[in-house]
Amino acid sequence: MAGRHVARSTFTSHIRRARAPRWLIPVTLLATVVVSASTGLTTPDTAEASVPPNLVLDPEFAQGTNAWTSPSGGLSLVPGHNGHRAIRVTNTSGAAMTLALNDRANTVASTRAGATYTASAWIRTTAPGVSVAAREGEWVGARSNGSKQAAAWLSDSGWHLVTVSYRAVGDGASIDFNVLGWQVPKGQAMDVSEPTLTTDASAPVTSPPPPVPTTTGAPSGYRLAFSDEFNGSVVDTSKWRVHNNSWASNEEAMDTSRPNNLFQANGALTLRAQREEYTAYGTSRHYTSASMDTIGKHSWKYGRFEMRAKLPTTVGSWPAFWLRDDHGEGEIDVMEAVGGMPSFVAQTLHQSTNGGKARLTHGVYSFKDGTLTSDWHTYGVTVTPTLITWDIDGDTVFTVSSATAPWMTSTFDDTLNIRINLQVGGSMPAYFKLPVTSASKFPADYSIDYVRVYQKG
């Protein structure tokens, strides 16, 4: 079609995700419990929507003082407030001095302009008559966007809660959180317990609804067999299995079911990748994201599978829409993309993803007159016993027939389930030399207007 260049890609096994069940811990559903990213405590998922997550890395000091540093004194662990632990900063100099306890890595890696970040800590000193403060600073590299602190005069040696709130100036900055004690006498100390930083930025952004699709309705001879228009306020778990506290071995994010990673608003579903420290089942990741599928809920033998979506632009992000056999090893990648390649999506057919089997891969490097990642597009595949056809906005971009791939008919003589996920980093971005880095902008959003399945009859 005029204006569209379609090129066959040469990449093959280098771009595979770690999808086999042996690389994933057991997936749980929304109604189960989740290990908090920052506290390590077990809390019900149902409470997560109303209790903002604590963004502080290791606030219970389970890793000792590893997440914290001080330029002004020695660090040690002591009993803290209300049965918790505390970090003690001791003045080891020969005179009174200001003590500081700093987060080793800035607690918030990527701000949202206008969001409020609230930090607090329980503080005491071993000598009364000291002024202490909790402080937040917003930084873009080495440049300060602003800061705010709240101070308290400690007339005794008891515990005192100090809280400060800061409103972010820009997007993509970081928030540094530290606690200060001014002119602490020599040999004396400041203790800090239960440091907390929360934000209203974890709430889903209210965005305008996606524009009206350019292609709608069942193809000729097909009926609508399944659809999710994402018009509600929560994910429909009668249709989708949502992954929680699970991860793949060849990427860098932890999938969670939290509303700051997966949410619905204004007729669209959003999978959101965030830069944040998160730990579950002893495994820690520097990013969180989302993944969902219809395994055990719905599957279909042959038909048209269609999704309308807007892809993330963040360098190193890896959104995908794909199908797997319920009982075999076949896989159909309807759409895979790499953040930083604005006009590229891939389509792939696998006899098996376990290696040593056939694979046919194709890439679209430009499409019509626009970029694929900055606009809404419809990605579809039609599966029959003898022909599989991929299309974008109704235009065919790739086909595989049983004459070309004799193994195709037997491989996909099975019901197929749908899988949707947003990975961060990993093998496919690395193959295209676009890994996630400290310069990658987060959050990264993969938004979906609808998913539909059509079958003949």
Automatic annotation (TrEMBL):
One of its GO terms (biological process) is carbohydrate metabolic process. It holds the Pfam family Glyco_hydro_16. GO terms for molecular function: hydrolase activity, hydrolyzing O-glycosyl compounds. This is Glycoside hydrolase family 16 protein. Residues 205-457 form the GH16 domain. Keywords: Hydrolase. Belongs to the glycosyl hydrolase 16 family. It comes from the Bacteria. InterPro entries: Beta-glucanase-like, Glycosyl_Hydrlase_16. The lineage of its organism: Bacteria, Bacillati, Actinomycetota, Actinomycetes, Propionibacteriales. Residues 197-216 are annotated as: Disordered.
